[in-house]
Amino acid sequence: MSKFRISVSDPQKIGEGYSAYVSYKLTSSLSEKIPGLDSQVYSVIRRFNDFSWLRSQIRDSLPYLIVPALSEKQQIGRFSEDFIAVRHRALQRWVDRISVHPEVTSTGESTIHPSPILPTYVVSFLRWCSFD
């Protein structure tokens, strides 16, 4: 059983024109209490580039591991409801696959802060922003 569950929700278009992007709310629920944390559920807002960053971190840290690909970036129609819905589902599937992989979710260390469950790059990706 996984030590945590991550859900991807609430895709929202942020901004206008060239600088516009879609953000996603990631909510992580820990299955066990972590010493030093007041909550087992926390949320953070991330955009597609952050998922790409996490994939790169995993590939760099675990070069022998085949890391699932993310969907391609799209310039035309990237804010259509259909495209956002498809990407949202694809990101949830990607996170589901990554979050249950034992090598991705195990640090092999006991000094990672704030969680001994997650490697540093996952903690950076899931940086605590707000507690539910």
Compact overview of the structure:
Helix content is 33%, strand content 23%.
Report on this model:
- There is one protein chain.
- The chain is α+β, with helices and mostly antiparallel strands.
- The chain has one domain (4-131): Phox-like domain (PX Domain), CATH 3.30.1520.10.
- The chain has four helices and four strands, in the order βββααααβ.
- The chain has a four-stranded antiparallel β-sheet with strand order 1-2-3-4.
- The radius of gyration is 15 Å and the shape is globular.
- Residues 108-117 and 128-132 have low confidence and may be disordered.
CATH topology grouping: PX Domain
Which bin fits the share of residues in helices?
25-40%
Count of individual helical segments: 4
Q: Tell me what the CATH architecture is.
A: 2-Layer Sandwich
What would you report as the Rg, rounded to the nearest angstrom? 15 Å
What is the oligomer described by this structure?
single chain
Q: Uncertain spans, ≥5 residues at pLDDT below 50?
A: 108-117, 128-132
What's the level 1 CATH class? Answer: Alpha Beta
| Spatial order of the strands forming the largest sheet | 1-2-3-4
Could you name the CATH homologous superfamily?
A: Phox-like domain
Draw up the topology in text:
Elements: E1 4-14, E2 21-30, E3 41-47, H1 48-61, H2 81-99, H3 102-105, H4 120-125, E4 130-131
Antiparallel strand pairs: 1-2, 2-3, 3-4
